[in-house]
Write a structure and sequence with these properties.
single chain; 424 residues; 4-stranded antiparallel β-sheet; 36% helix
Amino acid sequence: MTKDNHRQQFPALANKAYFNYGGQGPLPEPALDAIYQAYKRVQLGGPFSGEVGAWVVQEAMLTRRAIASELTVPPETIALTEDVTVGCNIALWGIDWKAGDHLLLSDCEHHGIVASVMELQRRFNIEVSICPLAATLNEGDPVAVIADSLRPNTRLLVISHILWNTGQVLPLAEIVKVCHEPPLTPPSQGGGQEEFSLVQGDGQEDLSLIQGGGQEELPAKKHKVRVLVDAAQSVGVLPLNLIESGVDFYAFTGHKWWCGPEGLGGLYVSAEALADLHPVFIGWRGIVTDANAKVLGWKPGSQRYEIATSAYPLYAGLRSAIALQHEWGTIEERYAEICRLSKYLWERLSELPNVECLRKSAPEAGLVSFRLTNGMPHKKLVDLLEKQGIMVRTILNPDCVRACVHYFTTEAEIDKLVGAIANQ
């Protein structure tokens, strides 16, 4: 399928240059139709009937299979959720935290996840520290930074596969290996990581960062550190094999790079991590009962983390969106095109005298973040571009503008964006 023909199936791409795939992807016409047809079938069959009940079970099974195929995992490891944040919260709150446990967070995580970690710290009195991955965008080793930040009492590392603010792709398999294999020598402490604490003041809870350092050397850890990944920017972009990566928890959504409907995502839980992750929100979809409705226990796989009634017709929409991606090319071919186009955008932006790209080399994914050096506020630029039918967004930390390219982005769209920025 040619790119022009492919793009015609996305109504949102008409009469605009769209660069906000990292926020929400455009829903293709076949997915819209699949959702409508599914809703219609539910009504014709009777929303609460045996026929529709069996159809819901089948739809969920087909959707887990479609997702599992994309992630190269067994279907039973997938829980269907609403979005990335729900998946992350299932993993964060399902751990049996004890006072004094340590959670390690990167300094590039979304504020929704940071807020969840803050509440975990307040409620369970756990230790939280932040490792400086932002500084490794152009130089340095993120694996070494994480390894240096682990402690004997670290239970969980929370990172993103692709950092949502800078577009950096983290080497997931290498990071997981460091967390799962105890070091032979004690990790050095105070290697630039920051302590993360809640400070009471005027009845409000504020995020306070206290520089670490000066700690006594601690013995080597003797247990696996679980790894939770925010996969908002990686699913639908990177070729993935989560089994090979060894990751424990991988939370994702269908409404960004898969271009599926908002309100449907998922959580992968590895077979090993499943035993230690307890359901927090509980409902009939995640439990097993006998003939008298007596609760016998949890569903055998990750389905135990699902709760109750959902917008089931969205399942058909997501499967349709994923299938449409394959009509254009394999995930490897799509990723290569994303990288080619993001390099083109990065090169064109780098030519502008009043623009500074955050990355000093070509991006490894579809997110391209840049700053203006002429003093214009980034919000003003974004607003001016939107009036011209060009959609980008601001990022607050670091203060920059983010433009996203997908495999069906065109060079003409990129030229339009760069030309509009040059004219400001």
